[in-house]
Amino acid sequence: MREILKTYLFLYTMVMPMMKENVQDALNKQMNREFYSSYLYLSMSAYFESLALRGFAKWMAIQAKEEWEHGMKFYKHLGERGAAVKLAAIDAPPLKWDSPLKAFEETYKHEQKVTAWIGELVNLSVKEQDHATNNMLQWFVKEQVEEEVQTNTIVLQLRMIGSDGPALLMFDHGLGKRE
Ligand SMILES: [Fe+2]
Ligand SMILES: [Fe+2]
Hints:
By secondary structure, this protein is mainly α. The chain has helices at about 1-15, 20-50, 55-80, 100-125, 130-160, 165-175.
C-alpha cells in the first residue's frame, strides 16, 4: 500500500511539477482581485437598490456572484496544485456613484483592467512553462471578452438614454431579466 502511494506521488510530481513561487503569488493576487470585483459589484447592487432600480440591482448582484466564483476558480487551482492559498484582506469598494452611467463606466474600466491582469498572468505562465495554469487561464481570456462586451454595451446604451427617466426605467426592467 505504501509502495503504491509512493509510486503514485512520484508519478504525480513527474506529470505535475510544483507550481513556482512567483506563479503562486501572482495567482493569489488575482484571486484577491476577483473577490474585490465581487465586493465592488455587490456595493453597486446596493447603490442601485437605493435608487429603486431593482433591475440594475439584480444584474449587479448576479455579477457579484459570478466574480466570487472566479475567485474560487483560482482558489481551487492553487489547492489542486498543492500551492498555498493565501487569503488576504479585500479592499473596501466605493459606496456610491454619481449616476448609473458612472457606475457602469467604472465597471467597464475595471473589466479592462482585469483583462490586462489576466494577460500578464498568461505571459507569466508561458515564461514559467506552467501549462496547467496556462490552460486554466484560457477560460478567463474568453470570459473577459464577454465581460467587456457586456459592460461596454450597457455603457453605450445608458449614454443614449441620458436623462430620459422613462427610458431608464424600461432599461431597468430589461436588466432585471438576467438569470
Ligand atoms: Fe472576474
Ligand atoms: Fe469580471
